Structure formats: C-alpha cells, structure tokens
User: What shape does this take?
Amino acid sequence: TTAATTATATTAAVVTLPAGDDSTQFSPSALYMLAFGTLMLNTDLHTASTMRTRPRMTMPQFVANFSGVANDEVSARFLCDLYVCIATNEIRMESDAFADSDISGWLLVRKGRRWRRQYFVVSNHMLYYFDDERARKPSFICPLEALAVRAVANSVAGQQYVFEVVDPNAATLKCCEAKGGGGGVLCDVRVRALRVAARDEAERQRWLTAVHRANISNPYFFMLKGALAAAAAAAAAAATAAGGVRRRLVLLATDVAHRAVHWPARARAGSASPYTTPNQYCKKK
Assistant: This one.
C-alpha cells in the first residue's frame, strides 16, 4: 500500500530498491504494478484451500503476468525472487492495523432486503466493517480506489440519511466479505453499491467527508483503461481497412460475374464492356 501510494504521488520520480547485490530502478508505474501484483499473489497463495475454485498461481504464471508491463523494467529474476519470498512469508495484517483510523462508528448497512448494524472503520484508504466494536477481523473490506461516495436524496427501505459508495468506472465494487461473518475466510464479492445509513444528517456528512478524503486514484486502472482504448482503436482501424479490402473484393467478384454473363452477348453484338478494369468498376459504383 505504501509503495502504491508513493507511486501515485510521484509521477516523475524514480524509486530505487535493493535487489541482492544489484540496484534496480523502477518507474512509478512499474512500482505500482509490483505492489498490486504482490498483494494479489499473497491473496492467491495463502487463501484457504477449501475456498478455492482453481489451482494456485505458479511462478511462471506470475512472471508472465508482468510480460510487456512498464516497458519490461522488472526482470524475471526479480519476479522469481519475489514469488519465493511471498510464498514462504505470508503478508499478514497487524492486530492494531485499525487503531489509527480516519473515522469509526456504528452504522446501518443494507444487506439484501434488510438493514444490519455494523461497526465501520475507514483506515489506510480502506473501508471496513465489523460485527462488533472489539472484533479484530473485519467482516467486509472495500478498497477506496477511484470510487465515488454520494448522499442518497430519498429514504431507502424506511431509512433516511443514506449514502452510497459506487464505482463510476464499473458495474460493481471490488470487495471482500467474510464467509459466515467476522472471523471467517475472506472471499471476493461483487456488489453494485454499498449503501449505508447514518443516524442524522450531521453524522452522514462526517462520513461522506471522511470517505471522500480517503478515496485515492487508481493509476493501474487508468493505465489499463488507456491500453484497452488504444487496442480498441487499433482494432477498429484494422476492421475499417479490412472492410475496404472486402468491399473491393465483392465489387471485383461482381464485375467478374457481370463480364461472364454479359460479355458473350455483347461480343456477339459487337459491343465492348463499359468496365475495362476493376478500378473503373469501383469508381463507377
């Protein structure tokens, strides 16, 4: 998280990290990708086997994920060492990770058709809620990256002072929820919006301000979005070019059919074809 935040804040700086006896330099975009990939690898390797639906990521797969990323700044050797490090040393959250929170308190959260009372905490650009104020493990985790938080004007299912957290760039939020409540294994979940109700307008405004301040940009998302947009533009240009070639081939085939049908009769009548070349036929059409 610290590495990702550093990469976000310094867009032109170069961060130097030790790699054995060498000194490897990474640009902010490569550093952010490393931080993101490390967290995803840690989750993949150390999730309980009973909750998995596919095999764990292998070292070649992890290295392949960085192929072509950030101009191939990250070497395969570095990625292999990183894989071994994460595989043998799980990244664990400290028990006092929520002590230095931006805001905390009891709120109502919309779960299905009901409202449930949960203890919410905003800390380190993350939104958590717990079944109990003294609980150490959260029941729900939502990274506050490139999200939007807004007040809901009308009451929702009998509750006023509602606000919601949504992703303006996607149909659902990327969240984790504990199976069986707090203390269970965290699993990926997709929700359209996280709707929360406060006691009064003053409390709602405090939470809106705190969540808005904790929300950070996601350069990884926008980097991928730009790459996808460029790929889509290239595909559209290729399709347009292919369409032009296809049109010329269709016209050429039509011309050939036209010649085959009409030339014998025209030859007997002593007349020539009005189209001597395919290009003339294309221009005419």
Notes: Residues 1-21 have pLDDT under 50 and may be disordered. The longest helix spans residues 219-269. Helices lie at 2-9, 28-46, 59-64, 76-88, 201-214, 219-269, 278-284.
